[in-house]
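Re: [ENG-882] Designed sequences occasionally contain unexpected residues at chain ends

Forwarding the minimal case from QA. C-alpha cells:
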C-alpha cells in the first residue's frame, strides 16, 4: 500500500502495560492493536476514547493522533461484518452469547441493538449479570444473563437460533476443547466462534457435522483488522491480501 510501516506482535505483561503505552507514545508509533488481557485495563492509560469504545468499555485499537493516543473498538462491528459476509444476518435473531470479556462486551453491545433477544452466559455469573445490565440499559434491548451450565444452556439454546462463542475455550494449544456439550448443536442453530487459531475449532467442526451454518473467527479477525488499518492510515484496507497473509501465517504456526 506504499505505507512506510511494519506490523509487529509484541507481548506485554500486565504489570508493564502502563510503561508499554508510554513507550509507544515516546516512539511516535502510528498505532497498535490490543488483545487479551489488556482490552479493558488499557483505557485508563489513553488520552481519549472514541464514543463506541466508551460505550463498550473496552479498546482493541489505538491511534496516535499528533502525540495523543485515542482508543477505538472495532471488535463489535468486525463481528457483525463477519456474520453478514458469511450469510448470517443477526437482525431479529435470538442470540446466546458465551463470555463476558473484552471481545464479548463489544459483540454484546453491537448485536443486542438489532437482535430480538440476547442471553449472555458466563462461568462467573456476576460478570454476565453486570454486562447484561449495562447492555440493556444502553441499547434498551432485551438482554438477560445465565450461568454457564448444561441444563440452563440447553434450555436457552432450544429457543435461540444463533450461538456466539466469545470465550477463549478451544484456542490453541487447547484446540480440542469446546465450550459446550456438542449434543446441544442442531441444524437450525447458526454458530459463530471468534477463536481463529485453529481456524476450525472443535465447536465449528461439530456444528458442521450437524449441518449448521458456521462462522470462523478468522473472518472477524480480518474485518476488525481492516477497520484498524483504515483508522491508522486513512486508506482502504486490502482485505483479500490480509486474508491470504493471515491464512499463510496460521498454516506456518500450525506446523
Amino acid at each position: 500500500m506504499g505505507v512506510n510501516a511494519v506490523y509487529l506482535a509484541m507481548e506485554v505483561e500486565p504489570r508493564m502495560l502502563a510503561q508499554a503505552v508510554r513507550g509507544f507514545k515516546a516512539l511516535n508509533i502510528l498505532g497498535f492493536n490490543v488483545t487479551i488481557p489488556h482490552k479493558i485495563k488499557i483505557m485508563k492509560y489513553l488520552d481519549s476514547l472514541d464514543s463506541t469504545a466508551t460505550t463498550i468499555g473496552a479498546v482493541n485499537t489505538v491511534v496516535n493522533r499528533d502525540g495523543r493516543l485515542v482508543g477505538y473498538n472495532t471488535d463489535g462491528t468486525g463481528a457483525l461484518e463477519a456474520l453478514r459476509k458469511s450469510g448470517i444476518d443477526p437482525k431479529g435473531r435470538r442470540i446466546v452469547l458465551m463470555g463476558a470479556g473484552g471481545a464479548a462486551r463489544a459483540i454484546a453491545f453491537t448485536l443486542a441493538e438489532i437482535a430480538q433477544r440476547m442471553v449472555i452466559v458466563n462461568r462467573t455469573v456476576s460478570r454476565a449479570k453486570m454486562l447484561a445490565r449495562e447492555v440493556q440499559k444502553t441499547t434498551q434491548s432485551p438482554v438477560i444473563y445465565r450461568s454457564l451450565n448444561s441444563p440452563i444452556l440447553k434450555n436457552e439454546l432450544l429457543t435461540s437460533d444463533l450461538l456466539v462463542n466469545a470465550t477463549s475455550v478451544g484456542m490453541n494449544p487447547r484446540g480440542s476443547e469446546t465450550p459446550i456439550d456438542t449434543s446441544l448443536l442442531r441444524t437450525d442453530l447458526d454458530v459463530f466462534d471468534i477463536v481463529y487459531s485453529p481456524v476450525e475449532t472443535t465447536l465449528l467442526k461439530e456444528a458442521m457435522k450437524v449441518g449448521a451454518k458456521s462462522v470462523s473467527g478468522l473472518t472477524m479477525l480480518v474485518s476488525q483488522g481492516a477497520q484498524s488499518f483504515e483508522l491508522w492510515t486513512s486508506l482502504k484496507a486490502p482485505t483479500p491480501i490480509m486474508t491470504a497473509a493471515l491464512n499463510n501465517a496460521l498454516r506456518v504456526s500450525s506446523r
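QA comment: On inspection the terminal residues look reasonable. The first helix runs from residue 17 to 26. Proposing we downgrade this to a documentation issue.
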